[in-house]
Specification:
The chain is α+β, with helices and mostly antiparallel strands and 196 residues long. The chain is 35% helix and 10% strand. The chain is built from seven helices and four strands.
């Protein structure tokens, strides 16, 4: 800032001290008047340069996730490296990175929490939209999921032989695992004794 100011006052520094101070006073007065005239038509709450900085922090806030800690405090954790953690306290305008307190502009950690809080929907003159009234359906509630039309049945009524061959005989003749002509008969095992 000093270098910029010195570059503007190059000609004034060659004048006597009283004249130099008068030139500095007039320069500052004109600059304040010009800035005031430029800002009069601006109708936003945040000034342009500060708004650019706030928007940049808002973009960077996507790299953080806020988790409620206590009262008005949130812990903000990095989504890339989970070791980085900061505590944000909006009541006192503080962040543990100290950027919020020093500059007055919310850091990316605070912006993550701020974006989570505000209700961005505009209020209208209409009534709030309520959920539909719940009506209990008649009859016993269904326990099983309804199958879609493109779902394939997981089990078929074919026997093991029918599933292996799937020939026209097995499919057309009503063959299934209960009336399979090659049904295996279970014979009792004589080696196992009943007394054991």
């Amino acid at each position: 800032m000093c270098e910029v100011f010195n570059s503007v006052m190059v000609e004034a520094t060659e004048k006597p001290i009283v004249t130099m101070l008068e030139d500095i006073r007039v320069y500052i007065m004109k600059r304040c008047a010009d800035n005031r005239d430029r800002i009069v038509p601006y109708n936003r709450d945040v000034l342009p340069r500060i708004r650019i900085k706030v928007e940049k922090q808002a973009e960077l806030s996507g790299n953080w996730v806020s988790v409620y800690a206590e009262r008005d405090r949130y812990e903000v954790v990095s989504i890339q490296r989970g070791k980085e953690k900061f505590v944000v306290d909006l009541r006192h305008h503080e962040c543990s990175c100290r950027k919020f307190k020093l500059s007055g502009i919310p850091s990316a950690h605070a912006m993550n929490y701020i974006r989570k809080i505000p209700n961005l929907w505009e209020r209208t003159q209409f009534e709030d939209v309520l959920p539909p009234i719940y009506r209990k359906p008649i009859g016993r509630p269904k326990k099983k999921r309804e199958q879609a039309t493109d779902d394939q049945p997981t089990r078929s009524g074919l026997s093991h032989e029918g599933q292996q061959q799937k020939c026209s005989y097995y499919l057309c003749s009503g063959h299934n695992k209960w009336n399979c002509p090659k049904k295996r008969k279970v014979t009792p095992n004589s080696a196992v004794s009943v007394c054991d």
